[in-house]
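Write out the bound-state structure for arginine.
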Amino acid sequence: MALWGGRFQGGSSAMFRQVNDSLPFDNVLAVQDLQGSIAWSRAIARAGVISAAEQSQLEQTLNELIALANEGKLDFAASTEEDIHSFVEAALIERLGDLGRKLHTGRSRNDQVATDLRLWVREHCEHLNQDLTRVIASLVSSAETNQQVIMPGYTHLQRAQPVRYAHWALAYVEMLKRDLGRLSDLTKRMNQCPLGCGALAGTTYDIDRQEIATELGFDSPCLNSLDAVSDRDYVLELLFCASTSMMHLSRMAEDLIFFNSGEAGFIRLGDQVTSGSSLMPQKKNPDALELLRGKCGRVFGHLQALLVTMKGLPLAYNKDMQEDKEGVFDAVNQWHCCLLISVEVIDSIKLDAERCARAAREGYANATELADYLVGKGTPFRSAHDIAGQVVLTALDQGKAIEQLPLETLKGYSELIEEDVYPVLQLEYLVDKRHILGGTGAKPVNKALDAAKSWLSQH
Ligand code: ARG
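---
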């Protein structure tokens, strides 16, 4: 039976039920709804609405329901209740009769659902925090195992300057650490409790809102009842965190798809994260990586969808807001799975150090070095850039690397070039010369690796 039947003479249409009912998806809030209900039962007992004995009976039954929910034994599919809140109330009434009918005193589903969803978001932020840390750990361990590998670094997908593979991996560590930071900012900001705000205006019962907030692990109560029941910023922020982090995973996936291509051949991926072709027996496709890239679409979509839903909603609660849930549930689930599959992919990577180094040597990635060498001999950088460019053109013509050109050819472009140019053009030398903070030289990369490891030991 509906929670609000008294004022109605006719029943709801089947199509209305289909559009209106949220139990098929908001049942994932069962435990949060039950926890919120325990806190509420204590609050109304303290306010003298129910006796201590009644409260303890309610709490016991609510705890039994939590146990059933955790065991997956609440049969939502068989229920005709409208949403998780009606479901819980019906379950209480079934077990406790009139006492079950007392719990909703002074409460509305509006402050109730706002509390449930905050509890759910807060809990999932913690899980996602752990997932992100696991990806960081995999990247750090892959960087450490392959500390010596040098590969081409790219701009415009053109070989630009050589970098260490570890430097590449640690770039993603930086991104994921920012994702973690965003999650923790959001958790701090959202940790206020709406319960006690009623439908929109607050409640007349003598409820200690600070006490409910503390019991449910919130820092404080929400300060304005109109805002409390209709604020979904924290859902939007979580969707933004998910979107930004998925964007990072997708960029990483794109890099790895390229590194894994037949053309680059820098890495090989494990069988456990790839699949074959039904037609072409030789194929081993990077499906996990393509899906990391592909799943961004729906996650970004959920962020956009909720922004549009919230835009222009008048204060306070409107049923439109029920549309906040499916998107965030899906986004969090996708993000979680993508983080975990990233761990599997990264752990499975085998580098071909030889191919990486060869590719880094080819493609004139040391042309900047030649220009810098000339700068060291007193040539202004702009002229040095021009000379190095001409040398590249000649080398290209002859199908050679810069360092394969004889000294007399190089001297044809600048008399300042001497025998000492050759060591400067060597791969390791030019990589390790970038020992500036944040650079790809062995020293800063080792330092960054140490920093990442000590960060991990504290998380
Ligand atoms: N299922 C609703 C939601 O998710 C619960 C709140 C309903 N409140 C109301 N006044 N109809 O938003």
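---
The two ends are 48 Å apart (CA to CA).
Residues 250 and 294 are 8 Å apart (CA to CA).
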